[in-house]
Design brief:
alpha+beta, Glutathione S-transferase Yfyf (Class Pi), Chain A, domain 2, 7% strand, Glutaredoxin
């Protein structure tokens, strides 16, 4: 099997950290997103959304969307502690926080970046005012994570999970918007500093 990706991209980074946490090694194939390789007919035949990452299994089956790829590996390579949770409550809590951080954090940050920088203006309409609004929405959401980390060592509870992976990728990416965990977000800042020391994140 192989994963088509652009390594530093947030979605690809999520999958990479997830695989590293589980000790799974998969062949990687670089995709030139800036050059539009993901928009080619050949790539679209593999990816329903024409985005990376895409997992291609040995039989030719392909799976796009980073969390769907992580779920595949979670089921295909079971461990004593799933990053998606083990008990009904753990699974629900992790899913809740994963979606909150993704929908109100990571996706908003990506909207802000794309619209402010116009990085893909050759293929989409960029509205700088929407980018500025999205950046502000992200800033207003971050205290939600900070408050959670005041009462919990990890984003979704007592154990590191896929919700933490999404959050660390958010923290990495939002630097592009000149936003970082600072004194106004002490719990998020401390959590982020600790997470950066995990081998899966360092690697």
């Amino acid at each position: 099997m192989k994963i088509y990706e652009l390594g530093p991209a947030p979605s690809a980074r999520r999958v990479s950290i997830f695989l590293a946490e589980n000790g799974i090694d998969v062949e990687r194939v670089h995709v030139d997103i800036l050059g539009g390789e993901n928009l080619s007919d050949e790539f679209r035949a593999k990816s329903l959304n024409a985005q990376i990452p895409v997992l291609e299994l040995d039989d030719g089956t392909t799976i796009c969307e980073s969390i769907a790829i992580c779920r595949y590996f979670d089921e295909a390579y079971p461990s004593d502690h799933s990053l998606f949770g083990n008990t009904p409550l753990e699974k629900a809590t992790i899913e809740m926080w994963q979606r909150l951080v993704e929908l109100k954090g990571l996706l908003v940050a990506m909207q802000a970046f794309r619209n402010i920088t116009g990085i893909y203006q050759d293929r989409e309409k960029c509205i700088s005012a929407w980018g500025d609004e999205s950046r502000q929405r992200l800033i207003e959401f971050l205290p939600t994570i900070d408050n959670q980390l005041a009462v919990s060592p990890f984003v979704a509870g007592e154990h590191f999970s896929v919700a933490d992976i999404t959050t660390v990728v958010l923290c990495e990416f939002m630097k592009n918007l000149e936003i970082e965990p600072d004194d106004s977000l002490p719990n998020l800042r401390e959590w982020y500093q600790q997470i950066l020391e995990r081998p899966s994140v360092k690697g």
